[in-house]
């Protein structure tokens, strides 16, 4: 196994990690601020991807497509918050799970109705296509590298938003003490809609960005959603920093596990069997990681509250 | 003097820079009510949490019936014979009054791991639960859902559940909280009779009740015991008057 | 308003009358549909023990459902291929006998529930939901990428497994078996709810600190509830696989977990017959709406959303006029 392959796989892991972060950040914010568990977050990811594919198909502009993904998902998120989600804040988690499960059905079937069952394709624009040569002579797809950069920039931006701005202060206050923030005269229901739309927008953007390297289809959001759950459980629910660390851990574990576990099994058994066994175990690696973290810290790496 | 049934020695607990319990040594002897009083934030709840095993102390130890219980968990302490009541009623609101009492009976000497037989038809268990409810005057309400009880009735049920454990020691966290004058008098009467069965460590804000009930009083201020003695001694103690009772005067 | 007991009796009457009519009218498809309802109901009764009594929002019950299914698939496929399950340290052969398959399904699901419960019960609330969901995915992906038993394609069985004295190939006889199981698990559920254990468990859901204060272990009660719950759902999985003569990773998918939960909620949480009503309504909606529109799940979603938002304690709750039992 060459060093080049390892570097490549680490970059792939980072890329999937930062995209997971975009999903996980919204989930963790929504839970942290509103105490809501949102299964429909994956649907917003899908909405972003479909909006991007539709706009890219109509205009040919990738940047416009990304903008459309962000706006469409944020809009969908805002509307869903106003119509459904805000009735769920006081309810127990069971109602939240059920209602957001129902939302998944509505979003998925609605999208299938509008766009059909066949996958759409979102092309990488010419100016981001092709490989780039990294120091050490490693060839790596420019688009994936761009994803890493974009993801990290958004993570930094989100960090600044939370720590430096007025809205960030309100979000943090909302996480700590809901009554306090209402007492301070902040319009709490507007803040909630805003946070939900922000989370939705990030998910939609992630859907569009990833949609260009995978296919855009109904049901694409749910696997990502569940990985994002694993991320925020590892990182500690409510913590943006935890979401970032967790996302990178999960991205790297998933990618590297898929490559190295079969190799590892080849040391013990014949190649065909090793590949099968190795990939079977690799598909479970992130859950084993999560279980290990929980045994060590039941509220995640950065989760303070029980 | 008899051996204390409950004793803490040098109990200390810090949260960061804040010391909430500092070198607390108190004890509880057979037949007495030992009241812990102190202003809000004095560390009374933290003390109870440590005694009942909900919070580990940073230093010091806790002895229950002569045994070092510092490292035992809540359940083990309950099985040793320590029964507590909660400041905010911790009752199963969907359950009936009788079911709440039965839970205590199951915990004390019951058979919680029976899966098929109807617990309400367990005559032995049920008569114990009903006898306890009768003692606090709740037997008439046995079939009522706990959520439908008045606040005062819930406070009585809190005490009844502790009673079902047939404990060696009671630890009561503000049993009078939120009770009116009439309710307090009723509760005072019940607690006064209880001390013969098992001594009570009583944390309470209602000074009339404390002075009526307590054999001994310890005053907790900023996590430290500033005075300890009989009711008369505490009434006369100038530091107590200044630090605490002064608020009332 | 109708009393809950009357609603229950009506549900039971339908479970007997509809298949009896279908048998008389020679409508085997209706019997198959009713069998689906009954098997889903068994799975949902299993979940309801954890969810309704113990307050454990497990979004990973597909693990047990799928394990039960694979218990059937693995044992029966070895039997039909005449290949031993394992040869060392002792030779184990597959089987086509339902009782053995059921026992295997129950035991393996119970074991899985012990392992999952020990980890998941370290946490509460939303962590618990996400962790059970994640364990479900773990099993799902494992089944997909493990090629020995069909991987993504699943396993097919040529002939339905056998039960002594019955011809399980005849739909009404297999239905009878499943209905008998539903009766057994409903009886078990009713007895559990009134038992000492049930009292401790329901108290552990409401006031765990109180349960500890009387010297009992709330977490252990929840673990036992999860094990019973998983075992029942596992049994349902074995029945379901036998109904379809097919098992695939779909039975382990998180949508399956969601559906089992929907059965419970549609009917009403913590109500004895809630899961039965829920499973019945779900299968009926699937059948009726599926006949009208390809996108029937859209309407299912809307109906589900309305039921949850109305907060009336499911269909059994609406009919019997008692609100949700949860505070």
Automatic annotation (TrEMBL), chain A:
Membrane topology per the entry is:
Multi-pass membrane protein
Going by the entry's taxonomy, the superkingdom of the source organism is recorded as Bacteria
GO MF, one example: transmembrane transporter activity
Give TM regions.
18-37, 68-85, 97-122, 142-162, 191-213, 225-253, 274-296
Pfam families, alphabetized: BPD_transp_2
Principal cellular location given in the protein's record: membrane
Q: Where in the cell is it found?
A: Cell membrane
* Gene Ontology biological-process entries: amino acid transport
Query: Which keywords belong to this entry?
Result: Amino-acid transport, Cell membrane, Membrane, Transmembrane, Transmembrane helix, Transport
Cite the InterPro entries for this sequence: ABC_transp_permease, BCAA_transport_permease
Q: Please provide, in alphabetical order, the Gene Ontology terms of the cellular component aspect for this entry.
A: plasma membrane
Concerning its family, UniProt says:
Belongs to the binding-protein-dependent transport system permease family. LivHM subfamily.
Record protein name field: Amino acid/amide ABC transporter membrane protein 1, HAAT family
UniProtKB/TrEMBL annotation, chain B:
- Put simply, this protein is called Amino acid/amide ABC transporter ATP-binding protein 1, HAAT family
Q: Which PANTHER family match?
A: ABC TRANSPORTER ATP-BINDING PROTEIN (PTHR45772:SF2), CONSERVED COMPONENT OF ABC TRANSPORTER FOR NATURAL AMINO ACIDS-RELATED (PTHR45772)
The species this protein belongs to is Tropicimonas isoalkanivorans
Q: Which InterPro entries match?
A: AAA+_ATPase, ABC_AA/LPS_Transport, ABC_transporter-like_ATP-bd, ABC_transporter-like_CS, BCA_ABC_TP_C, P-loop_NTPase
Alphabetic keyword roster: ATP-binding, Nucleotide-binding, Transport
User: What does the entry list under GO cellular component?
Assistant: plasma membrane
Taxonomic lineage of this organism? Answer: Bacteria, Pseudomonadati, Pseudomonadota, Alphaproteobacteria, Rhodobacterales
> Do you know which Pfam families this protein is assigned to?
ABC_tran, BCA_ABC_TP_C
Gene Ontology MF terms: ATP binding; ATP hydrolysis activity
Automatic annotation (TrEMBL), chain C:
Q: What is its main location?
A: membrane
Q: State the membrane topology.
A: Multi-pass membrane protein
Q: Which InterPro entries match?
A: ABC_transp_permease (IPR001851), LivM-like (IPR043428)
Keyword Glycoprotein carried by entry: no
Q: Which residues form the signal peptide?
A: 1-22
GO cellular component entries: plasma membrane
Where is the protein found, in the record's own terms? Answer: Cell membrane
Keyword annotations of the record:
Cell membrane, Membrane, Signal, Transmembrane, Transmembrane helix
Transmembrane annotation, as ranges:
38-57, 62-80, 100-121, 128-149, 169-188, 223-240, 260-285, 297-319
Q: Please give one Gene Ontology molecular function term for this protein.
A: branched-chain amino acid transmembrane transporter activity
Q: What is this protein called?
A: Amino acid/amide ABC transporter membrane protein 2, HAAT family (TC 3.A.1.4.-)
């Amino acid at each position: 196994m060459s060093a080049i392959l390892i570097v490549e796989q680490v970059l792939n892991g980072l890329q999937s990690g930062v995209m997971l972060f975009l999903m996980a950040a919204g989930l963790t914010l929504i839970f942290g601020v509103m105490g809501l568990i949102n299964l429909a977050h994956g649907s917003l990811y899908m909405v972003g991807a479909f909006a991007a594919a539709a706009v890219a198909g109509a205009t040919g502009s990738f940047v416009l497509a990304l903008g459309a993904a962000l706006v469409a998902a944020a809009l969908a998120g805002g509307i869903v918050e106003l119509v459904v989600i805000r009735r769920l804040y006081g309810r127990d988690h069971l109602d939240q799970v059920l209602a957001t499960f129902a939302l998944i059905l509505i979003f998925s079937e609605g999208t299938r109705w509008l766009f059909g069952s066949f996958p759409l394709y979102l092309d990488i624009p010419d100016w981001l296509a092709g490989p780039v040569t990294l120091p050490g002579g490693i060839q790596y797809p420019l688009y994936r590298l761009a994803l890493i950069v974009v993801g990290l920039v958004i993570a930094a931006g989100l960090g600044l938003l939370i720590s430096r701005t007025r809205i960030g202060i309100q979000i943090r206050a909302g996480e700590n003490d809901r009554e306090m923030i209402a007492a301070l005269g902040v319009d709490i229901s507007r803040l909630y809609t805003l946070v939900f739309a922000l989370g939705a927008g990030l998910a939609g953007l992630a859907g569009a960005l990833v949609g260009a390297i995978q296919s855009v289809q109904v049901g694409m959001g749910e696997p990502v959603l569940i990985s994002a759950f694993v991320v925020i459980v590892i990182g500690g629910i409510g913590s943006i920093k935890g979401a970032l660390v967790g996302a990178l851990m999960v991205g790297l574990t998933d990618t590297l596990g898929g490559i190295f576990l079969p190799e590892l099994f080849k040391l013990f058994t014949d190649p065909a069997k090793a590949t099968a066994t190795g990939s079977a175990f690799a598909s479970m690696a992130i859950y084993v990681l999560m279980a290990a973290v929980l045994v060590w810290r039941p509220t995640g790496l950065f989760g303070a509250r029980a | 003097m008899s051996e204390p049934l409950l004793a803490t020695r040098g109990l200390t607990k810090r949260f960061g820079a804040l010391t909430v319990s500092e070198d607390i040594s108190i004890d509880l002897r057979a037949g007495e009510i030992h009241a812990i009083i102190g202003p809000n934030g004095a560390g009374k709840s933290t003390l109870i949490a440590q005694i009942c095993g909900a919070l580990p102390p940073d230093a010091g130890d806790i002895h229950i019936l002569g045994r070092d219980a510092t490292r035992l968990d809540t359940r083990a302490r309950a099985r040793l014979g320590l029964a507590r009541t909660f400041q905010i009623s911790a009752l199963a609101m969907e359950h009936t009054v009788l079911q709440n009492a039965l839970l205590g009976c199951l915990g004390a000497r019951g058979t919680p791991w029976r899966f098929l037989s109807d617990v309400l038809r367990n005559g032995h268990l049920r008569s114990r639960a009903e006898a306890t409810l009768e003692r606090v005057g709740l037997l008439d309400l046995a079939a009522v859902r706990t959520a439908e009880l008045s606040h005062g009735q819930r406070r009585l049920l809190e005490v009844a559940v502790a009673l079902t454990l047939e404990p060696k020691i009671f630890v009561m966290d503000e049993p009078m909280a939120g009770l009116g004058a009439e309710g307090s008098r009723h509760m005072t009467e019940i607690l006064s009779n209880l001390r013969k069965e098992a001594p009570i460590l009583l944390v309470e804000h209602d000074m009339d009740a404390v002075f009526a009930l307590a054999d001994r009083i310890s005053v907790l201020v900023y996590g430290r015991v500033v005075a300890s003695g009989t009711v008369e001694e505490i009434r006369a103690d100038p530091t107590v008057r200044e630090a605490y009772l002064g608020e009332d005067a | 308003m109708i009393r809950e007991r009357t609603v229950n009796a009506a549900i039971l009457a339908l479970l007997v009358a509809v298949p009896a009519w279908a048998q008389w009218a020679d409508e085997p498809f209706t019997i198959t549909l009713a069998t689906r309802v009954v098997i889903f109901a068994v799975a949902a009764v299993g979940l309801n023990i954890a969810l309704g009594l113990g307050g454990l929002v497990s979004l990973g019950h597909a693990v047990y459902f799928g394990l039960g299914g694979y218990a059937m698939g693995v044992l029966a496929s070895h039997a039909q291929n005449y290949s031993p399950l394992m040869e060392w340290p002792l030779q184990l052969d597959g089987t086509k006998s339902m009782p053995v398959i059921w026992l295997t399904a129950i035991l393996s699901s119970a074991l899985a529930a012990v392992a999952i419960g020990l980890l998941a019960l370290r946490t509460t609330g939303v962590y618990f939901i996400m962790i059970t969901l994640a364990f479900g995915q773990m099993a799902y992906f494992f089944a997909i990428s493990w090629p020995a038993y069909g991987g993504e394609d699943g396993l097919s069985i040529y002939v339905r497994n056998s039960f002594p004295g019955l011809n399980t190939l005849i739909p009404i006889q297999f239905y009878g078996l499943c209905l008998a199981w539903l009766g057994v698990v409903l009886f078990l559920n009713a007895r559990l709810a009134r038992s000492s254990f049930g009292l401790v468990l329901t108290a552990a859901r409401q006031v765990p600190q109180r349960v500890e204060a009387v010297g009992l272990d709330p977490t252990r009660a929840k673990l036992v509830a999860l094990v019973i719950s998983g075992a029942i759902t596992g049994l349902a999985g074995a029945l379901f696989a036998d109904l379809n003569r097919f098992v695939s990773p779909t039975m382990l998918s998180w949508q399956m977990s969601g559906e089992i939960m929907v059965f419970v909620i549609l009917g009403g949480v913590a109500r004895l017959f809630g899961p039965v009503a829920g499973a019945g309504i779900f299968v009926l909606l699937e059948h009726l709406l599926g006949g009208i529109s390809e996108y029937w799940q859209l309407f299912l979603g809307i109906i589900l959303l309305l039921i949850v938002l109305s907060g009336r304690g499911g269909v059994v709750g609406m009919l019997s006029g008692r609100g949700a039992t949860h505070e």
